[in-house]
Write a structure and sequence with these properties.
The complex is a heterodimer of chains A (353) and B (268).
Chain A: E1 3-11, E2 14-22, E3 27-31, H1 38-46, E4 53-58, E5 61-65, E6 69-70, E7 78-81, H2 93-103, H3 108-121, H4 137-149, E8 155-159, H5 167-183, E9 187-192, H6 195-201, E10 204-209, E11 212-217, H7 219-224, H8 229-234, E12 238-251, E13 256-271, E14 276-279, E15 289-300, E16 305-310, E17 319-323, H9 325-331, E18 338-343, E19 349-352
Parallel strand pairs in A: 3-9, 3-10, 7-8, 8-9
Antiparallel strand pairs in A: 1-2, 1-4, 4-5, 5-6, 10-11, 12-13, 13-19, 14-18, 15-16, 15-18, 16-17
Helix pairs in contact in A: 2-3, 2-4, 3-4, 4-5
Chain B: H1 14-37, H2 43-47, H3 50-83, H4 89-101, H5 104-115, H6 122-129, H7 137-162, H8 166-173, H9 178-189, H10 191-207, H11 210-215, H12 226-236, H13 238-264
Helix pairs in contact in B: 1-13, 3-7, 3-10, 4-7, 7-10, 8-9, 10-13, 12-13
Classes of the chains: A alpha+beta (353), B mainly alpha (268).
Keywords (chain A): ATP-binding, Cell membrane, Ion transport, Iron, Iron transport, Membrane, Molybdenum, Nucleotide-binding, Transport
InterPro entries (chain A): AAA+_ATPase, ABC_SmlMolc_Importer, ABC_transporter-like_ATP-bd, ABC_transporter-like_CS, ABC_transpr_FbpC, Mo/tungstate-bd_C_term_dom, Mop_domain, P-loop_NTPase
Domain ABC transporter (chain A): 2-235
């Protein structure tokens, strides 16, 4: 059954008006800048905020339909991972994960063994007796995920699940989160301001700006066919499909990209335009992703210049690079100009198709 | 290097230093006097005399019962004030704090008017259940609870307001109703505040005099608690009064020490 949410919320001068659906097994990302109303939408679906209008329903049961119906959060089959996790510090990790089962009336022993199984699933068995405050950010996030999933919710809500992590752990934790979400059979709604999270984790992206949906579609559609300038800047990612073998990905459109970490099989390859550098002559040393390219377009953005390049046949045929206006002047950039491009392998992210 | 040698703010101004020292002496000298005047040689005998023991036991029983009563009523009241979203909340809070500033004797008179045998509520208690509170041990507990409860409510409410309500939201999304959330999430997180409030409340109940003597009278073994016994003994046998006072002083010091070390500084 589909989660159907027609969300109408007014907060002072701010009006949220979203129409969302999430199918079983689907991961939908609500992507948008801070203050767009993403978290408000999530709180409304969780029941932490009452709707002013509209309707939320799942499996034929209505959760919220003002003015008559309102189910409190504890009576909705949901699991929530909060931005700063909100693990109970007076309970051990095991007790945190068992909390939802206990609250739903599961026998203590069964709840504890089920919680232990979930801690094992997220790879934290040895932390069962640990208090949450002793965990690292990535570990706390995994405990929070286990706690949310332990009750076998129909709907999993993730509020900026990676925002509280430092950059070095984000990549790893994101990949793991992706695996857990893939295995989860219920519906997932992910709220994030990070386009990469949305691209890597979601089956469908809903872009929200100022309380309204501005675009909706599969990650590749949204990335390749941005409908507004805002979306283009937001998802300004280089995104390709290809087949990985070890640290090399052969792109479907031709060319190869070298990765920092090996993987295999059909993958999406994504990297931000800032990871691409431009040189007038072939760079010295041996950066692994070095392609001769031709400038096909130049766009001025707020603080950077986005350069469109064609790096075929050795690299991608459409490549975006963000450089500073000063670099544009140094390189005397003009369309049609031949250049040399390099891409840092450590900034390339892959995820399974 | 001595601290004095490194002082950067210059000499302490005499106009502040002198009253400060005077104030300190004013607070300390009576306590020192109590210790100096104590009949140390005969102290053990007096301490374990039947009268002292009786008063002490009654005091402990009544203060503890009053504290339990305050916990049962005061913690929910604090929760209501902090989380209930009541209209006119600040007005209710003001009423709650009235017993803090009200002369205890006035509290005793008020209790007598309401719970006395002819009182507003007491009349019905007597007629329907045959319960009469004034001049009984139960009356002592009521009087002490009336005076001490604000200490608990204020302390617990402060802790509740400082606690992050989003943890309660997290518990709700995990399927916990409000009562379960209160027991398993809210209460443990405000435990230090509850303990501090309980200790303050208990100490206040133990020292209660005015409301007790007004509402419960002075019947040895039934309503004569330590403070009342001290007052009585002062007229008949001052040495006993000193001994009783020393016991109360000791209890106060213990309470203060336990509060400071465990709950006020550092919070765990």
């Amino acid at each position: 059954m589909t989660l159907y949410a027609d969300l109408q919320v007014s907060r002072g001068s701010f009006n949220l008006s979203l129409d969302l659906t999430v199918e079983p097994g689907e991961v939908v990302a609500l992507l948008g800048p801070n203050g767009a109303g993403k978290t408000t939408a999530l709180r409304a679906i969780a029941g932490l905020l009452a709707l002013n209008g509209g309707r939320i329903a799942l499996d034929g049961s209505v959760w919220d339909e003002p003015p008559r119906t309102f189910r409190t959060p504890d009576r909705r089959p949901i699991g929530v991972v909060f931005q700063d996790y909100l693990l109970f510090n007076h309970l051990s990790c095991l007790e945190n994960v068992a909390f939802g089962l206990r609250a739903r009336g599961v026998d203590k022993q069964i709840a504890r063994s089920e919680a232990a199984r979930w801690l094992e699933t997220v790879g934290l068995s040895e932390y069962a007796r640990t208090r949450p405050r002793a965990l690292s950010g990535g570990q706390a996030q995994r405990v929070a995920l286990a706690r949310a999933l332990a009750t076998d919710p129909s709907l999993l809500l993730l509020d900026e699940p990676l925002a509280a992590l430092d950059a070095s752990t984000t990549l790893h934790v994101r990949a793991e989160l992706g695996q857990h979400l893939q295995r989860f059979e219920g519906r997932t709604l992910l709220v994030t301001h990070d386009p990469l999270d949305a691209m890597v984790l979601a089956d469908r992206i809903v872009i929200v700006e100022d309380g309204q949906i501005v675009q909706e579609g599969k990650p590749t559609e949204v990335a390749h066919r941005p409908r507004t300038d805002y979306v283009a800047q937001l998802v300004g990612l280089n995104l390709y499909q290809g087949t990985a073998s070890g640290t090399t990905v052969t792109l479907t459109e031709g060319g190869t990209i070298t990765l920092a970490e090996p993987t295999t099989g059909p993958v999406h390859v994504a990297f931000p335009p800032t990871a691409v550098s431009l040189y007038p002559t072939p760079p010295s040393g041996s950066p692994r992703n070095t392609w001769p390219a031709v400038v096909t377009g130049i766009e001025q953005h707020a603080h950077t210049v986005r350069v469109r390049l064609d790096a075929s046949p050795t690299g991608p045929s459409t490549l975006l690079a963000d450089i500073t206006p000063a670099a544009v002047a140094d390189l005397h950039l003009t369309p049609g100009q031949p250049l040399h491009t390099t891409l840092k392998a450590t900034e390339v992210h892959t995820y399974p198709v | 290097m001595s601290r004095r040698g490194r002082s950067t703010s210059g000499r302490l101004p005499l106009v502040l230093l002198l009253p400060a020292l005077l104030g300190l002496a004013f607070l300390l000298v009576p306590l020192i006097g109590l210790l100096a005047k104590a009949p140390w040689s005969t102290l053990p005998g007096r301490l374990f005399s039947a009268d002292v023991w009786q008063a002490l036991r009654l005091s402990l029983v009544c203060a503890t019962s009053a504290t339990v009563l305050c916990l049962l009523l005061g913690v929910p009241l604090a929760w209501l004030l902090a989380r209930g979203g009541l209209p006119g909340r600040s007005l209710i809070r003001a009423f709650v704090t009235v017993p803090l500033v009200l002369p205890p004797v006035v509290g005793g008179v008020a209790l007598l008017l309401v719970l006395g045998r002819r009182g507003l509520v007491g009349e019905h208690l007597d007629a329907w259940f045959g319960i009469s509170l004034p001049f009984t041990t139960a009356g002592v507990i009521v009087a002490e609870a009336f005076v001490a409860m604000p200490f608990l409510v204020i302390s617990v409410e402060g802790a509740l307001r400082a606690a992050d309500p989003r943890y309660e939201e997290a518990a709700a999304t995990l399927g916990a109703g409000r009562w379960l959330t209160f027991r398993r999430v809210t209460l443990p997180s405000i435990a230090p505040g509850v303990v501090a409030g309980t200790v303050l409340c208990w100490a206040r109940a133990l020292g209660e005099f005015g409301a007790t003597i007004t509402f419960a009278g002075n019947f040895p073994g039934r309503t004569t608690t330590m403070p009342l016994a001290v007052y009585l003994a002062l007229e008949t046998d001052p040495d006993v009064a000193v001994v009783l006072s020393l016991v109360l002083l000791l209890v106060s010091v213990v309470v203060l020490a336990s509060l400071r070390e465990r709950w006020i500084s550092g919070l765990r």
